[in-house]
# Entry
Amino acid sequence: MSKYTKRFDGRKMDELRPIEAKVGVIAEADGSAYFKIGKTSAYAAVYGPRELHPKFMQNPKCGLLRCNYNMMPFSGMGNRVRPGPNRRAKEISLVTASALKPVVDLSNYPNAVVDVYIELPQTDAGSRCAGICAASLALADAGITMKDMVAAAAVGMVGDQVVVDLDYHEEQPGDGLEAVDIPIAVIPSTGEITLLQMDGIISKEDLMKAVAAGKKACLVVNEIQKKALQKKYADLTKEATQIVGKPTAKASKKKTEVEGEANE
Amino acid sequence: MSEIFVENRQVVVPGEVLADGMDYLPGQGAYRSGDSIIANKIGLVSIDGRAIKLISLAGRYLPKEGDIIIAKVKDVGMGSWRMDVNSAYTAMLPVKDATSDFVPKGDDISELMKVGESVLCKITNVTTQKLIDLNMRGPGLHKLPEGQIINVNCNKVPRIIGKQGSMVMMIKEKTGCNVLVGQNGLIWLAGSPQGEVIAVNTIKMIERYAHVSGLTDIIKLHLEKVCEGLNLPAAEELNTNSLRLSSGRGGGSSSGPRRFGGRDNYNQGGQRPRRYNGPPRGARQ
# Structure
């Protein structure tokens, strides 16, 4: 097996690409989020619970979670893709829904649907993980009952090394190196795995190592998700105090200062 | 040993551990897993003795028995209306729960209320399958006259109403608008054009900053600032009697085409005449 000693972009073996997360980015949606990891970025918008059509899909026992994953035609390597769902997008939509289903509770919404739309304007590997992270944020932002968030990250092997969060270059390393890509989604509080896929050939021992590394990475992602949600409301609080509170407080402070000087 | 990790009115996210140990109980928006109490949605913490619950910050309206809401006619049936209540489910308003007048079987009830019209009504029953029954025979329940209806996050409605209606009273006073707030997040308002704009902006502002404490003062300052120098005329009080659904026939049998008086009564009581409502009653024979 070929040696992979230094990563192409200079990261540590267990280091994620820089992450940026933001909540409430789409005004008309019930919940929305933006999740960017390295050069891969995903938007997610949640609508619902709302009436479900076509009617034959309605389930009188429980609400339905419907996901739609879409890479924009101009994302990726710049080879234009035919727009609309293809076989890959349909599969990823399905696994995204099943990765999120274990946490969301729609038992109080019979016959209804929660729609999750995931759009990726730019992709550089790890797009389904970014999509799941964004969708989980958007669901929380939409006020859906969920026992926990879902955090996702890709792990894998390049040559003989277990690495975290592969980018496109690492997925296609060349130079006689073989790559394995394993996207993982985890419920952070329990450590349960809700998504586990694999592309490549790997030994059992290496797989266990990779999964352990993936779980660890997901916890890091989850912290960023939590902060993003909190930040939305913290920012609004700041904004509200700035509208009236702060300027007047400052003005009165100045006044007293001036008065103080006059008294002296 | 029990331990609590959050403060009152702190924003928490799903999966966040609120407390450890059996001394605390999970309320709405929280669940117990093993020893810990965990949040299951985004919300503000509210600690009430031993119970820890969450005040929701987001989410669509879920119909609840006893709520006073604003509903819009979606479809007219044989003896009932199908109403849009701004949620995932539609509601049913039977004629017998809409008017105290006798409406003969087979009458066209769209003469009482047409598709697209809105009413203030009450939810009387919600089943597990979310079949919803409405009633508008109670006091203060009526058809909504001309005006605009805006949509806000239903979780922020208590803030828009304020303690004992303080917030909404303030908006009414300052802008001179009539305002009716439905628990489902629909708000009807009518007044001078300028007053309506200020009222809508203020309501949107309350919705945006609902989780901030001391909001009443902020809104008060804001309203004083924007209403300064404006002389907004106060809207006349709603004449709810004239807005009740009524066949206007006194229940007796009559010859000739049947007429329902509900719409004709619209402008009695000096409402501004925005729409031509047909000739006065006496002129029609």
Remarks:
- The radius of gyration of chain A is 22 Å.
- The CA atoms of residues 208 and 214 of chain A lie 10 Å apart.
